[in-house]
Amino acid sequence: MNSIVGTIGDASPLAADTGPMIDPFGRAVTYLRVSVTDRCDFRCTYCMAEHMTFLPKKDLLTLEELDRLCSAFIAKGARKIRLTGGEPLVRKNIMFLVRKLGESVQNGALDELTLTTNGSQLARYADELYDSGVRRINVSLDTLDPDKFHAITRWGDFSKVMEGIDAAQKAGLKIKLNAVALKGFNDVEIPQLLRFAHGRGMDLTVIETMPMGEIEEDRTDQYLPLSELRADLEREFTLTDIPYKTGGPARYVEVAETGGRLGFITPMTHNFCESCNRVRLTCTGTLYMCLGQNDAADLRTTLRASEDDALLHAAIDEAITRKPKGHDFIIDRTHNRPAVARHMSVTGG
Fold first, then answer.
1. Can you tell me the distance from the alpha carbon of 89 to that of 6, in angstroms, rounded to the nearest whole number?
2. Which of 244, 164, 165, 152 is nearest to 205 (CA)?
3. In whole angstroms, what is the distance from residue 335 CA to residue 326 CA?
4. Is the Cβ–Cβ distance between 310 and 15 less than 8 Å?
5. Tell me: the pLDDT tens digits for 1-54?
6. CA separation for the pair 227, 244 (Å, rounded)
7. Rounded to two decimals, what is the model's pTM?
8. At what angle do helices 190-199 and 226-233 cross, to 10 degrees?
9. What is the pLDDT of residues 46-71, one digit of tens each?
10. Would you list the DSSP string of 6-74?
């Protein structure tokens, strides 16, 4: 473990160790995902219960504290930060944090600042996101049918999301659509989603549903292995594996008929743990070293214990030494409880 270092032989103040974050398996941690809020203006059926109990606002880190934590990770080698939620754009004054982190992109300390959103607030924030240094965003969109969209999001307005996508593209933001593949819901729509995305110059990534949090649905009924989906798509499209990477877990193919890229995120059928470069920070300052494990580190207490970052850097180093080799996700009839109890919105998807 890296340690707090000082000058040998004197009583000089301790200095923060800004050495790289290397986990026990030799993987460099360079990607930080930050859930800025567990709240969302949708209630997607595979993600949340309809009547969620959210964290008391007093438990959340301030935006200034989130900025300080992010800065500590940047100092220790994080090159990419993704803001998530819940829905990140419903956090009050969220653009303060976006602008602060955008400064690290502009001065070269950070390669990329990006965000995952449901699109509902994009019409309001797209221009400001671009002006703050964001160049690429992910928009979650599981169906192009307005009625089905309302059914799966419970509270979502399809027209607002379309307006948001229009505004984001007009502002110059590059968009990747994310769709959770759900058997019996949108499996037959994926070709339509693919053509829609590629027709507008957007990539599409499909994601297997993950066993996180208690919801009203039976995930065994929802679960669609992407190996099956790919086989179905290959009856209609020519898919060629390509080495394209965005820093996340998706494996990409090129679609000959559209000229666009299609990504597969397969935590269940083919996990991506061997190359994991990510850790996840919650809006309360809890650091999860793995999305599919419960082990976590409380950085809020350390953050508030001292204005100096040396203790914080040491706490981050200690946490990285506990990053596991992989997750334990299983979905089948004998595992009808979630692998982890927390909802995806707590950790940041």
1. 41
2. 244
3. 18
4. yes
5. 443 333 333 333 445 677 889 999 999 999 999 999 998 888 877 777 777 788
6. 19
7. 0.84
8. 70
9. 777 777 788 888 889 999 999 999 99
10. --TTS-PPPB------B-TTS-B--EEEEE--S--S---TTT--SS--PPPGGGSPPHHHHHHHHHHHH
